[in-house]
């Protein structure tokens, strides 16, 4: 089952936000995330808030777009009532699940509702995730015509036995085809990869990297497999049916990825993300890491505006009941104090190549930088400019770097 929602304070039914969220709002970008919680099958490693047809009860998938559009209208009303001047959406991201399980007309209607509510900033980035077997050329052309600018395909691997372990259903030979269709439609392309799957060798991973690079996407993400509690994969590992991921092998895979991608002209800009140039970075994800504002639409979606964070009820039926009644679908929320916000900025900004300004650190953190340089975890030249930028070794040990910046060993 999907992971549990965090604990928090009760969220008001009218969704109204504290007046403090309007302070300096004009200096922050505004993005919209639309969660589409449907998948054809549930992959054994996944703990996202998603539902297959056999798991969905009390609500129809065909009604989902209308429910999401209702929340968009509700969100626009809340921001206006809170006193936050309307800001055009800089980025819009459809995630899941598999957004392209819905008809293209549903996604385009949801995007139109965002445009109607807030407008889209000039040059706005509009992305949808997709599985390679969930779209065809005509579908991608419809998205591009409606204003989508980018598609992120869940490639994961080019090796059949690795895909089988992950319970991915697509044929790896379809990936170059869908990339070609997306490019023909005028869409930018990102490919998502996963490394460290049980049974995956370094040669397997090398093959996946070469296959991905051969497609010449604009952007690549590579994530190490995390075994989430409660997933089918976690149960298989616990029973001894599947081997646990090898952390040393995962580190070797990361180093191989960085070397191959650099040689092919891709630069890292976040620990798990590479792009051909700055223009092809995922601006939506950067907004998360940089602490901007976004409203998450859909069951289980998370939002953040001006230091207030909240999350929606998880089940699509409960979500539908709330939004159709004109109530906030939020299950809970929290207001972040200044110190918590500072700690989160250290945690997130350390992960991106643009780095963390040492002015964000307290005295302990500034003192710790010298030791991190000596240990080969932080770039010395960047530190002289007042920026904490991770080295390759530092990226492999990013969590440890953050711990040292924030607290005594």
TrEMBL record:
Probably acts as a heme chaperone, transferring heme to an unknown acceptor. Binds one molecule of heme per monomer, possibly covalently. Binds 1 [4Fe-4S] cluster. The cluster is coordinated with 3 cysteines and an exchangeable S-adenosyl-L-methionine. GO terms for biological process: porphyrin-containing compound biosynthetic process. It comes from the Bacteria. GO terms for molecular function: 4 iron, 4 sulfur cluster binding; coproporphyrinogen oxidase activity; metal ion binding. One of its GO terms (cellular component) is cytoplasm. Keywords: 4Fe-4S, Chaperone, Cytoplasm, Heme, Iron, Iron-sulfur, Metal-binding, S-adenosyl-L-methionine. It comes from Leifsonia poae. Belongs to the anaerobic coproporphyrinogen-III oxidase family. HemW subfamily. SUPFAM superfamilies: Radical SAM enzymes. The keyword Chaperone applies. It is found in: Cytoplasm. Residues 24-264 form the Radical SAM core domain. Its main location: cytoplasm. Signal peptide: none annotated. The keyword Nucleus does not apply. It holds the Pfam family Radical_SAM. InterPro entries: Aldolase_TIM, Coproporphyrinogen-III_oxidase, Elp3/MiaA/NifB-like_rSAM, HemW-like, rSAM, rSAM_sf. This is Heme chaperone HemW.
């Amino acid at each position: 089952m999907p992971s549990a929602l965090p604990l928090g304070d009760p969220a008001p039914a009218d969704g109204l936000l504290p007046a403090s969220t309007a302070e300096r709002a004009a200096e922050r970008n505004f993005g919209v995330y639309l969660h589409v919680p449907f998948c054809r099958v549930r992959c054994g490693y996944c703990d996202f808030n998603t539902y297959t047809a056999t798991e969905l009860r009390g609500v129809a998938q065909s009604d989902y777009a209308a429910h999401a559009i209702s929340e968009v209208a509700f969100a626009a009303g809340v921001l206006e009532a809170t006193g936050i001047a309307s800001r055009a959406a800089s980025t819009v991201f459809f995630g899941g699940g598999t957004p392209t399980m819905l008809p293209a007309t549903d996604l385009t209607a949801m995007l139109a509702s965002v445009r109607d509510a807030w407008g889209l900033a000039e040059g706005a980035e509009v992305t949808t995730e997709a599985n390679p077997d969930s779209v065809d050329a005509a579908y991608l052309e419809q998205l591009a015509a409606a204003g989508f600018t980018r598609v992120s395909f869940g490639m994961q691997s080019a090796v059949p036995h690795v895909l089988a372990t992950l319970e991915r259903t697509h044929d790896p030979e379809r990936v170059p085809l869908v990339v070609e269709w997306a490019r023909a439609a005028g869409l930018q392309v990102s490919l998502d990869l996963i490394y460290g799957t049980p049974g995956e060798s370094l040669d397997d991973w090398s093959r996946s990297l070469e296959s991905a690079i051969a497609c010449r996407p604009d952007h690549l993400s590579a994530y190490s497999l995390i075994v989430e509690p409660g997933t089918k994969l976690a149960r298989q590992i616990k029973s001894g049916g599947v081997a646990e991921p090898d952390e040393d092998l995962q580190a070797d895979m990361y180093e191989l990825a960085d070397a191959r991608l650099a040689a092919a002209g891709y630069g890292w800009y976040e620990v798990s993300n590479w792009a051909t140039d700055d223009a092809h970075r995922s601006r939506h994800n950067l907004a998360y890491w940089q602490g901007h504002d976004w409203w998450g639409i859909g069951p289980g979606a998370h939002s953040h505006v001006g230091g207030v964070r909240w999350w929606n009820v998880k089940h699509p039926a409960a979500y539908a009941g709330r939004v159709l009644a004109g109530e906030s679908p939020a299950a809970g929320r929290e207001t972040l104090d200044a110190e918590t916000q500072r700690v989160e900025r250290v945690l997130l900004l350390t992960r991106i190549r643009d780095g963390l300004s040492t002015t964000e650190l307290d005295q302990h953190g500034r003192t710790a930088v010298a030791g991190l340089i000596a240990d080969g975890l932080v770039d010395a030249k960047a530190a002289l400019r007042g920026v904490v930028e991770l080295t390759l070794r530092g990226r492999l040990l990013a969590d440890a770097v953050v711990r040292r910046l924030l607290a005594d060993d």
